[in-house]
Structure to design on (993 residues):
């Protein structure tokens, strides 16, 4: 089920009502949430529910087993076994065909017959997210940073909590799991904030991302002949992907708040970054911090020599790219960011705020990020070549003016809302305004979303990851 | 205070108590059920081709549940056969799936309707179907159940009661989105912004319903159109009503619209040239209507050039909607709109004008949105290019010197006319008589050379003769334009049913315009 499915409001109202009916027994509430989460996931395809349950059982059992033994070797073996099964499942569903077809490609080029058959595999929604959540849980227990959860219901609902199940944020046990062990309190302020988050999230998705989507789809084609489409399409995709993913994360946070849970912020005004390293502290924070804590730092992080540090950065970002999917374009996107981070590390620290060079740093960072999004959005390397070759034809056609106008309007809307948060130093900046101006902003957002509902798309971009 | 809506000092406003609101919601819910039952489960639904959502053509049909669906296909599908072309759905049960939810907007769902045609076979068309009222009713009942259960448990605070009651009311009457927002605003502090926002939204909604009535049809249609055919006809209709006098006036189908460059022709002939060329679906009766509009405001042009492609000589019955389109000044395309749709159109006009939809595919890639297309058409004196091919070639000289692959001969083109076309020609003949036969010229559009051989040669001659007779114009009025042009001058695969490319590409268009200008200036030379 999607947050945009017609059944979702009914699902949410019923779940909320039943959940708060049991407000005196938080363990019963957890059971209600677990059932609701499985219904939410099974709505898409009930067969893949077994995958979520199996992943939960593996992580639960492995977590208990790691905690039950003091022998470090055995603990390590259990950790590897648990994570191996989790990653193996992820690999099979997400990367099997990619590696088989890539290997076949190489073999055919070398004059050998292809050796493996590509099989039809449906990618289960959210598999990358809940797999990474389970891996971090096991590593935290292994490191002694977290206690294993004994209650299987608590653990299962932590793994399957429906607001963040299919597209994150990737929650850690230290933040979310402990919330399932205590009574929830929802204050009027929480309700107010949740309402704002829902309004904001749906606006980002319907009023911005889904408005940009058809234009981006028009722009991104290997056979399209105009260079300006490559440029404007990339800029529009920069807005679309942020509005889409940030919209999802914001709706997820708002819904969780209605149930009395706090999810981490997944974004912190990433397009205001003045360096690429700053960008990664603000973009998809739950994934970037996961990669930092469970990949980059174990590889040695920046406590090693300069060259090794660069290798670590490149490895982390390339694997981060591949996390998004089995495609050379994702690998190229990760590589670009890896190189940019290495350059960032080589040339020195961030530009100090207030520096006259800050706009230049900001522009350079944004240009790098956009170049990355160009690679990210292309479906194949053939698309990349086709779109880049179109840069040889810079003919300006009427559609470019329409797309540019759209780009400016969407960018201004997003920037205005983000600037409000930055200036007021409050993620709920709109709510700190007097009631009528705040109401007017919400009303306009609602009306724009309403006026543009014709272009909506039920799916979020990050569902595919 | 027991209720957010009740002021203890003013008991008269108790009409807004949660019990009253719940009761109204319950009654409306029950009334909806009774209405549904009494209507014998006939649901009035709109089936709209997916590409036309938010604009373009839309027609309403009554779908009796459990029976076959007979559907007039979209105008973009051409059919022969009985009139009207009624297609039977292969599967009588339309699967509703992947329903979409818009904040307070019309709740719709997508479905694929399969049509079985005796000649063409099965065709799947993506449709947008408004969600059936039954589901809204069920939602209302679910909300009611929640209210009752919670109230019975004594768990509802007054504020919750009020808002769930409002939710029930809204669910039974309007979109789920508004109901959900109401249900999620259970505290006084949430009312601070949420309640006020709803008041503003309500005000805008009410104002929009009123504003819709005051807006003219042209503005409304322009706001909704995202289909290139509708945009072409609509804009040429508007131009026919506002154009000033011109020396040369072009009229015809899309082979004229996209096969002649009126600005270039104006420069080459040193006389003002305007075009009201549109699409073949409109046909001679539609062209006649455009000419009539033009002649209402202007004296007859010095020269009227009628340019048509042989493929439009066979008219399909469902093309009549296009004739109705121009004869009703576009009103037939607007159709019936629910209050929410009216609100959506007006809010889009006011709040989101730059967010207009782009046309689909390559049309969108070149023209962008309808406004940009209208500007392009205006600056081209009523002509434009077909952006589906030839865009990578930079400049006419490069085009002229390009080497193209050999194309094998295809089956000769038919130039077949039918009775429907001949009938429509009488309307055009009337307007030609008003302008003067001596001022009228007829051009039969060129076809790709591989299609012009054998029977096609005689067919073209016969068609020219019969059209001339139908229009009562002299033999010399048939311009000796090239009957064919190299295959590379055309677009590829722009007309899948027959396979023959009908539109010249941007450079073929320039060459044909030069050729036409030469003929008009009395300096004929080889088109190649």
């Amino acid at each position: 089920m999607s947050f945009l499915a017609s059944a979702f409001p009914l699902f949410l109202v019923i779940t909320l009502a039943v959940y708060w009916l049991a407000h005196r027994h938080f363990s019963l509430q957890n059971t209600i949430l677990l059932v609701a989460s499985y219904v939410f996931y099974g709505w898409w395809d009930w067969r893949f529910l077994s995958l979520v349950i199996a992943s939960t059982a593996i992580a639960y059992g492995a977590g208990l087993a790691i905690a039950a033994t003091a022998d470090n070797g055995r603990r390590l073996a259990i950790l590897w076994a648990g994570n191996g099964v989790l990653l193996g499942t992820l690999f099979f569903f997400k990367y099997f065909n990619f590696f088989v077809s890539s290997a076949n490609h190489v073999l055919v080029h070398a004059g050998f017959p292809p050796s493996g058959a590509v099989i039809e595999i449906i990618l289960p929604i959210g598999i990358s997210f809940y797999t990474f959540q389970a891996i971090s849980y096991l590593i935290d227990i292994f490191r002694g940073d977290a206690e294993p959860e004994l209650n299987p219901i608590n653990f299962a609902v932590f793994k399957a909590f429906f607001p963040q199940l299919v597209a994150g944020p990737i929650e850690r046990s230290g933040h979310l799991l402990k919330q399932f062990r205590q009574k929830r309190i929802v204050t009027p302020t929480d309700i107010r904030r949740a309402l704002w988050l829902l309004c904001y999230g749906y606006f980002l998705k319907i009023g911005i991302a889904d408005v940009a989507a058809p234009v981006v789809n028009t722009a991104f084609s290997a056979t399209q002949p105009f260079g300006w489409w490559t440029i404007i399409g990339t800029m529009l995709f920069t807005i679309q992907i942020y509005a889409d993913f940030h919209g999802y994360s914001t709706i997820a946070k708002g819904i969780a708040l209605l149930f009395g849970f706090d999810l981490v912020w997944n974004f912190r005004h990433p397009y205001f970054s003045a360096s690429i390293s700053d960008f990664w502290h603000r973009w998809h924070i739950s994934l970037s911090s996961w990669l930092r804590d469970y990949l980059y730092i174990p590889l040695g992080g920046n406590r090693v020599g300069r060259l090794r540090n660069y290798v670590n950065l490149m490895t982390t970002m390339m694997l981060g790219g591949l996390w998004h999917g089995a495609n050379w374009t994702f690998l190229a996107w990760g590589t670009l960011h890896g190189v940019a981070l290495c350059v960032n590390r080589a040339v020195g620290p961030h530009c100090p705020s207030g520096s006259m060079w800050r706009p230049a740093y900001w522009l350079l960072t944004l240009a790098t990020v956009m170049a990355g999004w160009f690679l990210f959005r292309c479906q194949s390397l053939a698309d990349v070549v086709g779109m880049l070759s179109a840069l040889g034809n810079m003919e300006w056609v009427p559609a470019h003016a329409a797309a540019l106008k759209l780009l400016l309007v969407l960018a201004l809307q997003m920037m205005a809302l983000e600037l409000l948060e930055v200036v007021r130093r409050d993620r709920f900046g709109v709510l700190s305004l007097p009631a009528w101006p705040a109401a007017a902003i919400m009303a306009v957002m609602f009306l724009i979303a309403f006026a543009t509902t014709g272009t909506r798309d039920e799916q979020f971009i990050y569902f595919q990851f | 205070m027991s209720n957010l809506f009740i002021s203890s000092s003013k008991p008269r406003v108790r009409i807004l108590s949660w019990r009253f609101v719940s009761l109204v919601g319950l009654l409306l819910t029950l009334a909806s059920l009774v209405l549904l039952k009494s209507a014998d489960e006939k649901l009035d639904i709109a089936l709209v081709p997916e590409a036309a959502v938010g604009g373009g053509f839309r027609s309403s049909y009554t779908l009796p549940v459990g029976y076959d669906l007979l559907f007039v296909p979209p105008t973009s599908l051409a059919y022969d056969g009985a009139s009207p072309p009624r297609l039977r759905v292969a599967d009588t049960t339309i699967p509703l799936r992947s329903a979409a939810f818009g904040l307070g907007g019309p709740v719709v769902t997508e479905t694929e309707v399969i049509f079985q045609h005796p000649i063409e076979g099965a065709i799947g068309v993506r449709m947008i179907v408004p969600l059936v009222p039954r589901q809204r009713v069920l939602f209302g009942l679910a909300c009611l159940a929640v209210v009752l259960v919670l109230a019975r448990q004594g768990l509802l605070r007054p504020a919750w009661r009020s808002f769930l009651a409002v939710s029930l009311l809204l669910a039974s009457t309007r979109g789920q989105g508004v109901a959900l927002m109401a249900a999620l605003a259970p505290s006084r502090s949430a009312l601070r912004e949420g309640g006020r926002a709803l008041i503003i939204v309500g005000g805008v909604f009410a104002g929009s319903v009123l504003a819709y009535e005051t807006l003219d049809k042209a503005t409304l249609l322009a706001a909704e159109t995202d289909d290139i055919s509708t945009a072409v006809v609509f804009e040429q209709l508007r131009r026919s009503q506002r154009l000033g006098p011109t020396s040369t006036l072009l009229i015809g189908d899309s082979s004229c619209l996209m096969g002649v460059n009126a600005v270039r022709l104006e420069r080459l002939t040193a006389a003002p040239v305007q075009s009201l060329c549109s699409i073949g679906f409109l046909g001679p009766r539609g062209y006649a209507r455009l000419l009539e509009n033009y002649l209402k405001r202007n004296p007859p042009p010095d020269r009227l050039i009628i340019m048509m492609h042989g493929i439009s000589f066979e008219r399909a019955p469902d093309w009549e909607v296009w004739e109705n389109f121009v004869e009703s000044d576009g009103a037939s395309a607007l159709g019936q709109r629910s209050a929410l749709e009216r609100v959506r159109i007006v809010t889009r006009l006011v709040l989101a004008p730059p967010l207009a939809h782009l046309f689909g595919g390559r049309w969108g890639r070149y023209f962008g949105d309808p406004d940009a297309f209208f500007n392009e058409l205006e600056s081209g004196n009523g002509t434009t290019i077909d952006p589906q091919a030839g865009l990578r070639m930079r400049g006419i000289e490069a085009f002229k010197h390009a080497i193209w692959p050999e194309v094998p001969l295809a089956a000769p083109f038919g130039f077949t006319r039918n009775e429907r076309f001949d009938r429509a020609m009488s309307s055009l003949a009337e307007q030609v008589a008003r302008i003067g036969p001596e001022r009228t010229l007829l051009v039969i559009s060129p076809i790709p050379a591989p299609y012009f051989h054998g029977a096609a040669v005689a067919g073209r001659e016969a068609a020219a003769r019969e059209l001339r007779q139908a229009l009562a114009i002299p033999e010399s009025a048939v311009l000796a334009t090239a009957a064919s042009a190299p295959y590379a001058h055309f677009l590829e695969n722009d007309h899948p049913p027959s396979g023959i490319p009908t539109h010249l590409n941007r450079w073929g268009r320039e060459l044909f315009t030069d050729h036409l200008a030469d003929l008009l200036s009395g300096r004929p030379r080889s088109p190649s």
